[in-house]
Amino acid sequence: MSGSAPVPAAWDALPCLALGLDRDGRICSVNRHGQQRLGHADLPGMALKELLVEDDPAGARLWAQVQDIGPGTKTLHGECMFLCADGSKLAVAWSLAPQGTPDAPAPLQFVGVECDLEARQDDSHVFRTLAMQSRRGILVTDPDNIILFANPAMARMCGYPLSELIGRTPAILKSGQTPREVYQDLQRALDDDKVWQGEFVNRRKNGERYLEARTIWAIRDNQGEVRYYVSISEDLAERQRYEQHISHLSNIDQLTGLQNRPSFMRALSAELEMAHRDGHQLLLLHLDLDDFADINRRLGAELADRLLAEFGQRLREVLRQADRIARLSGDNFALLLRPRADDGETEGRDIAERLLAAIRRPFDIAASGETILRSSIGIACYPNDATSADELLDCAITATQSAKHGGGNRLCRFESTMAVRSDEIRRLRAALPGAAKRGELVLHYQPQLSLHSGHIVGVEALVRWQHPELGLLSPAAFIPLAEECGCIAEIDDWVLESSCRQMRAWRDAGLPPIRMAVNFSARQFRREGLQQTVAQALATHGADARMLEIEITESTVMQDMGAAMRTITQLKSLEVRLSLDDFGTGYSSLAHLSRFPIDVLKIDQSFVRDIVTNPANAAIVQATIAMAQKLGKLVIAEGVETEEQLHYLRRSECDELQGYFFSRPVPADALALMLREGRALSFTSSAEQSVRDIVLLVDDEASILSALRRTLRREGYDILAANSAEEGFSMLAKHNVKVIVSDQRMPGMSGTEFLARVKTLYPRTVRMVLSGYSEISAVTDAINRGAIYRFLAKPWDDEQLKEEIRAALREWRSLFERQRD
User: What are the tens digits of pLDDT across the range 774-789?
Assistant: First the structure.
């Protein structure tokens, strides 16, 4: 292509008409697409007027605007018809703008996009009017992301003239500070034909950064192919305001207004460098509130947060302006002091004593009265104790733990004798990643026993670390470190896989089926794809999902109830059981729990420990058991260590227990031996054993009676079986039956008729129908008349049937036990 002005390289990539015009309206340059569509061999040198259709008012207006346009004229827009070399007409939506200097070879730039004028005339007018007057920036690009249209608001926002935007890509606005994940999310949304909304950190032409909110979507043709991408943008803040906002979020704890941990650790490292250079001391104080978990439970989350905020403010009042203070996490705080005197440690102790005195003053944040806090403070010194930020903080934390072990509410200076433990923590933290792959983790299993039968009905899988130097370590020694260093997910995955493998091994060995409870950390519970992880572990080892119980803590559920509900629902779709661990230690309620499909509630051992001497804890346990069972949830008491606790829980209708009273956590082989030997709890010392739980089964099929016996044989009941209503009446006359389960369709007398007579003859019974044949009207009538307590369908679910029998016995005791002589 020849011409008096060179064609910019970007023009030839544009799928539109791009012409350079001189002051007289003659064509100086044309891009490849324009040459091909118009077809005139001698385009360079032709006047634009020669390409316009005669008697077209729109073309006449374009030519007049070309003649009148000056250097300061804004970009002009319009639509008209062009005449091609073969005599055909081409409808074009165009933009015309000055570019460069007036004496440049091609001072005017013309860009035209082909269109159907008749079909889109009205829509185009509406769009252009809205776009030109909109206060938000609008971009339209082709499928290759080349900008075809930009409105004045977009030009003002980014600082680029329209002439420099048209023909470029939005990449010219990138600052390099928008996370890659944002662009990946944008591409996924566009690929799925969705409208995307998000934020970019972009850069203006002058280099200033700005935060831009964008809404982007694709316009497709009838064949589903992308024709255009449309973007609507809004400048959220000026550069300075945005940077201040980012700095605030990244450096400040939102609850207290103090520095957060990352910001404090950076500042500590910088201060240590200065101290090394100048040869002066630094003191680091670590504060940990004593028994704050109990205060949090008593006050609730909102008031506890207010208390922490006021605590932070009180620390500020004691410290000097030059001192640094940060909230590291939860109820942990750190203070960095630069002593003014040579005896820096004495000065640090004086400040710590003032802090303790200030903390002891009551906090008045609850309508119920004043709250008194206690704190343990650890002190570490640079350069005497450590030379790096992490090591110095570890020393201060170690001293804090020593203060707590001494009773709390005191300060403790780090001593060299504590270094052994500090070094051990560092070694453990370094060795913990990869422990599972190295085969250093093992599982021990603590039995869970039925308080109805005394038999082992489940186990909780508890991880141990077989450290090559330190020996077998309990979870308390390394799980907190795993959560700190981010390898807790690796451990959780290993525990899940190993537990499913062991379930299958016990089943293959012919041992009785028992539940396997597996603990999930908060991080594991919030992981994406958790449902698939659990499903894969079950499938890999052929484990029964119904026998897997996933334990999550109460605090994990309450952190984000919406997300927790979604995760729990996904897990329940696999038919696994869900258990809520450490119930009562957080700030949930049974009203909240009624919303979740939780199967098991575990009462925390802190309530069980003094249940026979502490009236408050006893009342909490009894209320929890009663309300949980009304919600259809199984209740397990943790940490049962004495016979007194055992019998109190049994009298309170608790379903199951686990604890040292029966067994510590043991290896898999030891647990298998317990199951083979049939080890169980003995309730012979309790006077209540004089009255047995007798269950009568009535069915005319011997195979059904045999299957029911197998299902209930480990529940601790006296089972009677009758193959007809007549035989059932005979047994009722001889035995003090509490619960009756009868088939509905039997020869001679139906189940509902049989139970209706039993209601009159033996009213101190709880009656249920179990049948594969359902006469709805007869069963409904019997239920309405009180003859039937429950209707259960064949085939039954073993675990559901067991729970229904337990519920029926609880119903019997609530109705008739007080009437017993």
Answer: 555 556 655 656 578 8
